[in-house]
Amino acid sequence: MAYLGTKPADAVLETDDITDGVITTSKLADDSVTNPKLSTGSQQNFRNIIINGDMSIAQRGTSSSGNTTDVIQLDRMTVGISSSGTYTVSQDTDVPTGQGFAKSLKIDNTSATSGGTISVYQKIEGQNLQYLKKGTANAESITVSFWVKSNKTGTGVCELYDNDNTRQISATYTINSADTWEKKTITFAGDTTGALDNDNNLSMYCFIWFDALAILQSGTLNTSWNSVTAANRVVGANIDLGDSTSNYANVTGFQMEAGTSASDFEFLPVDVNLGRCQRYYDVHADGSESATSKLAVASAYTINTAYTVINFTQKMRAAPSLDFVSGVGYYRIRSAGVNHPNTADMTISSATTINCRFVINTADTLTAGYSGWITINNQATGFIAFDAEL
Fold this sequence. Notes:
Mean pLDDT: 87
Largest sheet: 7 strands, antiparallel
Distance between the termini: 59 Å
Oligomer: single chain
CATH architecture of the largest domain: Sandwich
Order of helices and strands: EEEEEEEEEEEEEEEHEEEEEEEEEE
CATH superfamily of the largest domain: Galactose-binding domain-like
CATH class of the largest domain: Mainly Beta
């Protein structure tokens, strides 16, 4: 009997394993591979629907202060703030011990206002949710898990919100011990009503609520899929991060997956994780990398206008808008040795998901045909980026 391939030293095929060239029994002597050791879920790779759940990618910078309304600081993570004071939102190195995480998202109160809304959430495209089979008889259960740490104890709420069909479901979680990392796991039943659109638009939110305005918690918590009633969405959430400037919360290991149990967090290589984030937000000139970061070479088309074409790093979710920090850009005609600082007149046109035309309009006099850099103007915190967030 011929053995095809390289035979492991401890592997033994029984004599009746191959009959007429067909393997009928596959048995390893040490039984090292058994059914219980094989994952049985329907989505094995990229099972975490949440992007950047380990909080490792921060293209916009690692910290911002003075936040009183919703803000995205770490990629794909929105911190929801309403009537709850002022916060610094940052990427932090405080993480659960021995779990493989290097970063967390920190929400730090810097000006107290009690009784408002604080949450962490992600918006999700419909085409990334189709295997959940929502709206069919075979709808999958969904399990959300995350690690949380706060100086406050109390009850929070995790919520799935179906934007396509205006349906939602909620469940509570509890922070039991102050200043201690705790893992939370919530499983939601599958929803047999309301199929999700198979497109690149917003279909679902996944919320981690700490507290919410009374309008969202004056009824009875909706613990089964149903049409949205605002008063039933966040009932019981009482982790009031707004009542003191001593308050903070950290979150990491944010995962949402099909099934009735939480698997270990799915860590991705940094290049893969970054590439997934760049589909939504793509930084091209970053002053934190270099005080004179160059975006591109542009040519003066007229005495007041210069053009270039920017190719995006990844094919973006949709045609993006331009995002930059005011006052950080200029157009430099190298051969003329003149800077033309007109950041407010930087625009894009003819944008697609793969590239755009970048336009600089200036009151200064350019020389048609001359070329020069579009660059960060020596600002370590400045950047020029393209935004296709949901």
